Structure formats: C-alpha cells, structure tokens
C-alpha cells in the first residue's frame, strides 16, 4: 500500500504515546466478557505488530494480516526480535482469504474507518464470518462521529520529539462523512538535516446503527457496543466505539 511505504519505518515512533498493553487487556476483557474461552486469533490490519506482540506475550496463537508489505516487514522484525515467528499475510482485508478458521478475529485502531464504501464493509464482514469458527467472536473499534467530525474535523495538529516532527492537517467532507488527512513528517537524518515524508489518508464515519445492520446482514449477532475502553454504552463525546459480534451457528 503506497501510503504506508515510507510511514512504516517511523510508524512506531509516532505511536509511542499509545499503551498497547492497556488496549490489548481491554480487547481480551471484552472477549472474555462474551464467553470467549481462548483459542487462535486473527489480527486484521495488524500494522507493525504491536497488538500481535501483546497477544503473543499472553500465549495466544496469532496470525497477522495487513495490506502493507512494508508494515509487515517492520512487524516481522519486531516479533522475531521478541522471539516469535507468527504467520504474517500481506492481504487487503476487503479480499480476506485465510486457510484456517479462528475463534477470535480482531481489527484494532479504527482500521475499518479506512474502508470508504458500505459495500466494502459488507465484504469485510462476510470474509471475517467465513474466517471464524462457529460462534467465534469478532471485535473491532471505529472512530465515532464526534471524533471524525469534531476532534479531527478541519483541525490541524503538530507533534515534536527529539528526532521527529509532524503536522497533521484535516479536512472534513460533510457530504461524504469523510475526513481527509495530510501528514507532513520530518525525521532527523544526519548532521541536523531532516527527511520529509508526506502522507495522505481518508477515514469515513459510519453511524452505529448502520454498522450493526451491516453485521447482522452477514450473519453476526451484535453482543455489545462500548465506548472509549469502558464497558458502557457510547456517549455524545465518545471518540472510539468498540463492537463485539458473534458468528451465527
């Protein structure tokens, strides 16, 4: 995937503020709350493998899938250095095809928001259903309308650390419910010189009821919808919505 080719090498530096252990604990908490008894896990849009690593540390059998070969290369190095060698598959989740079934499919960190067409969301949900064992769980999170419209919206953000600086400019398209994001990332190369990486991304907001309808249309039972890493319903200022669904018999 072109938009992650250069970003892959600096992605983890940009994500240093994320507590992957805490997020993984919450995903597992949701799974166990809904009677998941353990088993193999498919980590969709796994990126550089941060959640996969946390799951492997807990002793789970994990397979990772991502559209970007460059992100998977970073994941492979990270996991190998930690003593793990899970299967990593370079694949667009809209065309997901795996050779085994899993008891739990996870798609973390608003990856589903990058899918801009409802028909493609349906395809993903259909493929996930096929990848699950009977009564297997599908857990994913999405940015809320509040996050996409108000927090991201038409706002600009900057971030600076010792060896990296970036600006993040957003433009929200109300008609399409899509936030366009332009990132200019400057990384320290040598002798005070900086290398520039330019990235463009788009995320679409989907109402909760539409997501639930799309899940149910693909033979999922929606077990719960939660907000911001709390076992409670989303509110008006919820930024991240977590969905838990079970494959039908």
Which features does this protein show?
single chain, 249 residues, alpha/beta, Rossmann fold, N-terminal domain of TfIIb, 2 domains, seven-stranded mixed β-sheet, four-stranded antiparallel β-sheet, globular
Mean pLDDT: 93
Shape by Cα distribution: globular
Strand order of the largest sheet: 3-2-1-4-5-11-10
Number of strands: 11
Number of domains: 2
CATH fold type of the largest domain: Rossmann fold
- What is the assigned CATH homologous superfamily of the largest domain? Vaccinia Virus protein VP39
Figure out the total of helices. Answer: 7
The radius of gyration over CA amounts to: 18 Å
Q: How many strands, which pairing sense, and closed or not: the largest β-sheet?
A: 7 strands, mixed
- Which architecture of the largest domain per CATH? 3-Layer(aba) Sandwich
Could you characterize the architecture of this molecule?
With 249 residues, this protein is α/β, with parallel strands linked by helices. It is built from seven helices and eleven strands. The protein folds into two domains: 2-143 and 205-247, Rossmann fold, CATH 3.40.50; 147-203, N-terminal domain of TfIIb. β6 and β7 form a beta hairpin. The longest helix has 14 residues, at 20-33. The chain is globular and about 60 Å long. The mean pLDDT is 93.
